[in-house]
Design brief:
Layout: E1 2-7, H1 11-20, E2 28-31, H2 40-43, E3 60-61, E4 74-75, H3 97-105, H4 113-124, E5 125-127, E6 141-143, H5 151-162, E7 178-181, E8 186-187, E9 190-191, H6 194-202, E10 208-211, E11 214-222, E12 225-233, E13 236-251, H7 254-264, E14 267-268, H8 270-276, E15 282-283, E16 289-291, E17 295-303, H9 315-328, E18 340-344, E19 355-360, E20 377-384, E21 391-394, E22 405-407, H10 414-431, H11 434-437, E23 440-445, H12 453-463, E24 465-466, E25 496-498, H13 513-527, H14 544-554
Parallel strand pairs: 1-2, 1-13, 2-10, 5-6, 13-25, 14-15
Antiparallel strand pairs: 3-4, 7-18, 8-9, 11-12, 12-13, 16-21, 17-20, 17-23, 17-24, 18-19, 19-20, 21-22
Length: 555
C-alpha cells in the first residue's frame, strides 16, 4: 500500500517521485518499464550518438502513411530510468511565452507563461551562467554551456549571422530568435538527467520505492476511482502484482505510454477500445488523439578535412578523447553532438520564430541519416515548430507489451510541408556562407539534384523523421477532446492524474524536455496543495523595466 503510485520513470516521473517524497509522510512508489540508468554511455554526453537507436528505447516505428512515402519511421522513445532525458541530446530550450499564453487562452487556467510557468522553470534550474528574471540557480537540473565547442559549430554560428540572423547567447531569455550555441542539461561535463538531478538524492529516502523493469498492464478503477495499478516484472510476466494507491495514481509514461495505459485500462474512445479487444470503462474521446511531433529534415555535407567529431570514430582517436575526458573533463566526449542552433522565421509575416535548426559537427549520428563516404561530415537539421497536423496513438492489441499504432500525421496538413521545405532552403543558405563553405567538399545529402519546389517536397516526404518531441495525446483543457483538467486530473475519474508531455494542448516552439520537467514540477504542487490553476495568480516577477520604473518613482 502506498499513498502515490507513479507509472513511468521518465523525466516527469523522476520529478514527481522526488517532489512527493519530500514529505516524509508520503509513501511513494515509482514504476519504470526499463532498466536503471547504469549504461555508461548515458552519462557521457557524446554517448547520445549511441542512444536513439539502441536497446534503451521501445523500438517503436510509425504507421506507414501516404504523406511520408509509406515509410515506417523509427520513433525513438526512452525505455530506461530517466526516459527521454537519459538518451536525448540534452538541448535546453523552453519555447516561447506565447506558447503557454495560448494554452491559457484555450481554457488551461493558470498556465500562462509569466505567472503559471516561469516560476517553475526558474525553480527547477541550476544555471551556471545565467541568473535573472528568466533563469534560476540552485535547482535540481544542471544547465550549462558546453565545455568544448567544435570549430565547425563556431563556424555555423558565424554563418548564421552572415545569413542575417542576430547572435543569441540565450534562447530562453527575452528573445528566442537568432543563432548560437545551445545550453545543455549537463553538470560538470556529465549528463544531468532527471534521475541525476532529482532522483539520485531522493532514492535514499525510506518513503520512496523505485522499481525498474516493471511493466504496468492497467490502472485499477473501482467505483469511478483509481485505486492502484497492476504490473509484472521483466523476469516473470505471468505473475501480476497489485500496487494500491490510497491517494492517487499518477501516470507519467509519456506521450505514447500514457494514452496507451489509459486505453488498456478501459479509458478512451469506446469504438477504438472495442476494436482492440478492451472493454470500455469510461468514455474519453480525446485519449490518444491530438498527437503532435516536430518533423525533422536533415541535410548532410562532406568535409574537405577531419574537422568534425567523426574523426573520433577511429580507435586511437577515441582512446585519446577518452583520456582527455577522464583526466581533464573536457574535449569531444563532453559534446552533446547537437551543439549549435537557431530559431528563425519562415516568412516576414510570422510574429515569432517558427523554424528551429540543430547543427551537428558530425554525420550519420541520427538513425536513418547516411554517413558520408570519407567519414568526415556535418549535419544541419530543421523543423517547423508549430505543426498544424494532428495524429493519434491507438492500441494494437490488449497485450501491454505490444507496441501501439503511432500515426504522427507528419505533413498531413499542406502548410506543414510548405514550411518544412522553407527550413531546408534556409539550411542550405546558412551552409553556403563563407564561414562554413571553406570547410565543405560537397553536399552529400540530398545533393545538388534537389532544386525545385516539387523536388524539395519529395525529399521531405522521403527522408523527414521524428524530432523526438511527441506531445498532446492526453491534452489538458475543458473542451470535449481534453483528457485532463487544468490541474491534470483525468476527467471523470477520481484519484487519477496525468503529468507529462502528453498533457500539452499544443506543442511548444522548442525541444520538449524542459517543458515536461516544468509540467511535473507544477503538478507536484497541485497534489501538495501549493498551487491553484483556477485562481488568478499573483505576480511573482517584474521585468527589468518595471523594477527601473519603481526605483525612479521611489527616488
Amino acid at each position: 500500500m502506498y499513498d502515490y503510485v507513479i507509472v513511468g520513470g521518465g523525466a516527469a516521473g523522476c520529478v514527481m517521485a522526488a517532489r512527493l517524497s519530500e514529505d516524509a509522510g508520503n509513501r511513494v512508489l515509482l514504476l519504470e518499464a526499463g532498466p536503471a540508468d547504469t549504461d555508461p554511455y548515458i552519462h557521457m554526453p557524446a554517448g547520445f550518438a549511441k542512444m536513439t537507436g539502441g536497446p534503451l528505447t521501445w523500438g517503436y516505428r510509425t504507421a506507414a502513411t501516404a504523406e511520408t512515402q509509406r515509410r515506417e519511421i523509427p520513433f525513438a522513445q526512452g525505455r530506461v530510468l530517466g526516459g527521454g532525458g537519459s538518451i536525448n541530446a540534452m538541448v535546453y530550450t523552453r519555447g516561447q511565452p506565447s506558447d503557454y499564453d495560448g494554452w491559457e487562452r484555450d481554457g488551461c487556467a493558470g498556465w500562462g507563461f509569466r505567472e503559471g510557468v516561469l516560476p517553475y522553470l526558474r525553480r527547477m534550474e541550476d544555471n551556471e551562467r545565467l541568473c535573472n528574471e528568466y533563469h534560476g540557480v540552485g535547482g535540481p537540473l544542471g544547465v550549462s554551456d558546453l565545455i568544448s565547442v567544435n570549430e565547425l559549430t563556431r563556424a555555423f554560428v558565424l554563418a548564421g549571422q552572415q545569413a542575417g540572423m542576430p547572435h543569441n547567447s540565450d534562447f530562453n531569455g527575452a528573445q528566442q530568435e537568432g543563432v548560437g550555441v545551445y545550453q545543455v542539461t549537463q553538470r560538470n561535463g556529465k549528463r544531468c538527467s532527471a534521475v541525476v538531478g532529482y532522483l539520485r538524492e531522493a532514492r535514499s529516502r525510506s518513503n520512496l520505492t523505485v522499481k525498474t523493469d516493471c511493466l504496468v498492464s492497467r490502472v485499477v478503477i473501482e467505483n469511478g476511482r483509481a485505486v492502484g495499478v497492476e504490473y509484472s516484472t521483466r523476469h516473470d510476466r505471468s505473475n501480476v502484482t497489485l500496487a494500491r494507491a490510497e491517494r492517487e495514481v499518477i501516470v507519467t509514461a509519456g506521450a505514447i505510454g500514457s494514452p496507451k495505459l489509459l486505453m488498456l485500462s478501459g479509458i478512451g474512445r469506446a469504438a477504438d477500445l472495442e476494436r482492440a479487444g478492451v472493454k470500455p470503462l469510461h468514455a474519453l474521446d480525446g485519449v490518444g488523439q491530438n498527437l503532435q511531433d516536430h518533423f525533422d529534415i536533415d541535410i548532410v555535407y562532406e568535409l574537405n578535412g577531419p574537422y568534425s567529431l567523426d574523426k573520433y570514430a577511429k580507435k586511437h582517436m577515441m582512446l585519446l578523447a577518452g583520456i582527455e575526458y577522464k583526466l581533464f573533463n573536457k574535449g569531444p566526449v563532453t559534446s552533446n553532438i547537437a551543439e549549435g542552433g537557431a530559431f528563425w522565421y519562415s516568412d516576414q509575416n510570422v510574429p515569432t520564430p517558427d523554424l528551429q535548426f540543430h547543427f551537428l559537427p558530425g554525420a550519420g549520428v541520427e538513425a536513418g541519416v547516411p554517413p558520408v563516404p570519407s567519414g568526415s561530415g556535418c549535419t544541419l537539421n530543421s523543423y517547423f515548430l508549430r505543426p498544424r497536423s494532428r495524429g493519434s496513438v491507438t492500441l494494437h492489441s490488449t497485450d501491454p507489451a505490444d507496441a501501439p499504432i503511432i500515426d504522427p500525421a507528419y505533413i498531413r496538413d499542406p502548410y506543414d510541408l510548405k514550411v518544412a521545405v522553407e527550413g531546408i532552403r534556409q539550411s542550405r543558405e546558412i551552409m553556403s556562407q563563407s564561414a562554413l563553405s571553406k570547410y565543405l567538399k560537397s553536399e552529400h545529402f540530398p545533393g545538388t539534384s534537389v532544386r525545385t519546389q516539387a523536388e524539395y517536397e519529395t525529399y521531405a516526404q522521403q527522408y523527414g523523421r521524428t524530432g523526438y518531441h511527441p506531445v498532446g495525446t492526453c491534452k489538458m483543457g475543458i473542451d470535449p477532446l481534453s483528457v485532463v483538467d487544468p490541474q491534470l486530473r483525468v476527467h471523470g475519474i477520481e484519484g487519477l492524474r496525468v503529468a507529462d508531455s502528453s498533457v500539452m494542448p499544443r506543442i511548444v516552439s522548442s525541444n520538449t524536455n524542459a517543458p515536461t520537467l516544468m509540467i511535473a514540477e507544477k503538478a507536484s504542487d497541485f497534489i501538495r496543495g501549493r498551487a491553484a490553476s483556477t485562481e488568478p495568480a499573483k505576480k511573482r516577477f517584474a521585468t527589468t523595466q518595471e523594477h527601473a520604473g519603481r526605483e525612479a518613482t521611489a527616488v
